[in-house]
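Teaching note: in complex prediction, the entire set of molecules is handled at once rather than each chain in isolation. The prompt given to students was simply: 'Predict the structure of this complex.' The entities are:
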Amino acid sequence: MKKMILIGNSEAGKTTLKQALEKRPFKYEKTQVVEYSDFIIDTPGEYAQGRRLSAALAVYSYEADVIGITVNANEAFSLFSPNIASMANRDVIGIITKIDDDDANIEQAKLWLELAGCKRVFEISAYTGQGVKELMMFLKKK
Ligand SMILES: Nc1nc2c(ncn2[C@@H]2O[C@H](COP(=O)(O)OP(=O)(O)OP(=O)(O)O)[C@@H](O)[C@H]2O)c(=O)[nH]1
Ligand SMILES: [Mg+2]
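The expected output is the structure of the full assembly:
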């Protein structure tokens, strides 16, 4: 099983996705610190949003096999600049969250993640379960 670090803005749905992947009931828990579980490293959105803390994410990513950067489908902007994936020495995948949202613009989020350099982009709704299985299969594959 690959270990994945989840990086993205606050409220993107990272922790909820983690709960969906772990088949646990949804419970809102604001991520306050970097949290480790079996195969997920969950990070607070503020780490990705601030210049100083984002540097720490590079160090945490060394403990993962794959980096999952998240953009919620109803977001008006992306934190991830073009080709930012080349900064990492791990595979970087894109995860579009909240695709069930009424204001979802999946194509826009996909474009941002592809421009960021993601090898693969997963489209996911933790609420409906869409795409969760595909991501799980990717993580399980050696
Ligand atoms: N519509 C919709 N809402 C979701 C989905 N996943 C999460 N949310 C909601 O989005 C809000 C934020 O979810 P979190 O999982 O806590 O977000 P986070 O990225 O972990 O946020 P931080 O811990 O602050 O970094 C919560 O109110 C969730 O219920 C989804 O698939 N669809
Ligand atoms: Mg969280």
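Point out the following to students. The mean pLDDT is 96. Strands lie at 4-8, 35-36, 40-42, 66-72, 91-97, 120-123.
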